[in-house]
Amino acid sequence: MTEQVSPASRLRGVVSVPGDKSISHRYAMLTSIAEGDSRIDNYSTGADCQSTLGCMRSLGVDHTFSEEEGRQVLTVHGRGIHSLAAPSATLDAGNSGSTIRMLSGILAAQPFDTRISGDESLVTRPMRRIITPLSEMGAHIDAANSQYPPLSIHGSSLRAIHYKLPVASAQVKSCVLLAGLYADGETVVEEPVATRDHTEIALRELGADISLSPRMARVRGGAALKGKTLYVPGDISSAAFFLIAALITPNSDLIITGVGLNPTRTALLDVLRSMGAQIKLLHIEEANGEIIGNLQVKSSRMKGGVIEGATTAAVIDEIPILSILGAVSENGLTVRDAGELRVKETDRIESIAHNLRAMKIQVATSEDGFTIPGRQQFHAAEIKSFGDHRIAMAFSIAALAADGPCLIHDAAAASVSFPEFYTTLHNLTN
Ligand code: S3P
Question: How does pLDDT run across 244-266, given as a tens digit for each residue?
């Protein structure tokens, strides 16, 4: 599917974004191994989260969808921690790194073998980062070239470990904690910098035996989880596209409702404010330990700057859209310490640089980042998403600032996290 996106003179109105992808994955997995039915309001409409549900169904856990006031409400019929069934075929995680990495923690503890794989992007993504701790816990996992999907996971009884994450990764942290639910004893995970803590919060909400301290989580195996009613806040990583679109489009004034504002996810707001963004928090509430708020954003003079160290890790999913802001900012943008971008859904340093250059924007790349000078003009061009949802959406926002209409090829990739993206964008700009 090719989308045409035309330049916009302003963005005004009120929008919402789909339920948070990270939280949806965790709720789907955890309620599947909880006892009884759980109701998950505002579950992500993105294809990645449907992949997780597909895997859970193949493991014997049924779910149903209903629609309430325009929101998807998912009911998961949990079967308890020891009730998953052996799947009859290879589990399909689709494009979703979160699904394969986190679910592997549960699969490693099952009394059966599982094979799990995904699409042509997923089979290039590194898995040694989960194979290493799960093997230490006693699991046996075979992988292509010892590190790529498909993974063949030979489930076994696990022992608790104390694992110090070598790199900041919430997926790896979550994988070990999920395996820890089944392990004999107390599993401890320590992280070098704080990463998103949705797994820890969800485990506490569902009744796991978990204790938390800064950059450390401990879970004791054997406790039962209990199904409950949960609400998924809007995804701040999806809101990022409209936040930055409004900041860089003159005369814009936009409200984004119901956005998840967990402090481990809001570094983007701090970065944007430090660069001059006018972003106001209008209303705030809490659901199941997660914070939710409405954001008002107005067009602003953006200075640009440097993103590095722990900040890079905290805004890693927002780097593609931050690169668009960088090109039109006053001083440009330098991103460092972002080697992880090379192993996302695509090599995002290359996908960003390719499309920036197609739009006649200067960029210099390095092994772990890039520099984009400021005050540049986007030129109309044909954009390639390379099948990467965040690249499709980031360059659709660049097209709003271009000197003519742009064609976004393989724009359907956006549906991995945000199927309603183009409808929302067209409503805002027309
Ligand atoms: C995620 C963690 C991050 C992020 C990904 C979702 C999660 O990945 O980039 O989109 O839901 O835990 P890493 O754990 O690889 O840093």
Answer: 999 999 999 999 999 999 999 99
Six-digit token string for 56? 């859970």
Domain 3-18+233-429 and domain 21-231, same fold? Reply is: yes
CATH number of 21-231: 3.65.10.10
| Extents of the domains making up the chain | 3-18+233-429, 21-231
| Whether the CB of 170 sits within 6 Å of ligand 1 | yes
Complete DSSP assignment for 329-359: SSS-EEE-S-GGGGGSSS-HHHHHHHHHHHT
CA dihedral 332, 338, 343, 344 (to 10 degrees): -60
- Tens digit of pLDDT for each residue in 152-210? 999 999 999 999 999 999 999 999 999 999 999 999 999 999 999 999 999 999 999 99
pTM: 0.98
- Provide the CATH topology of domain 3-18+233-429: UDP-n-acetylglucosamine1-carboxyvinyl-transferase; Chain (3.65.10)
Give the Cα separation of 386 and 388 in Å (integer): 5
Angle (CA) 379-381-385 rounded to 5° is: 125
Q: 154 - beta bridge partners? A: 113, 140
User: Which amino acid is located at 84 in the chain?
Assistant: L
| Residues found in the chain | 430
Of 182, 130, 175, nearest to 155 by C-alpha is 182
Of 169, 311, 344, best ligand 1 pocket probe by most atoms within 8 Å of the beta carbon = 169
Catalytic residues: 317
Q: Does residue 187 line the site of ligand 1, with CB under 6 A?
A: no
Q: Are 153 and 114 in contact (CB under 8 A)?
A: yes
* Alpha carbon of 80 to ligand 1 centroid (Å): 26
Categorize the per-residue pLDDT at 430 as very low, low, confident or very high, splitting at 50, 70 and 90.
confident
Query: Does the Cβ of 24 fall within 6 Å of ligand 1?
Result: no
Q: What is the dihedral of CA 15, 16, 17, 19, to 10 degrees?
A: 180
383 vs 139, 245, 375, CA distance in Å? 43, 17, 21
Q: How much of the chain is in helix, strand and coil states, percent to nearest 5?
A: 35, 30, 35
Q: Are 203 and 189 in contact (CB under 8 A)?
A: no
Closest CA to 212 of 229, 223, 199: 199
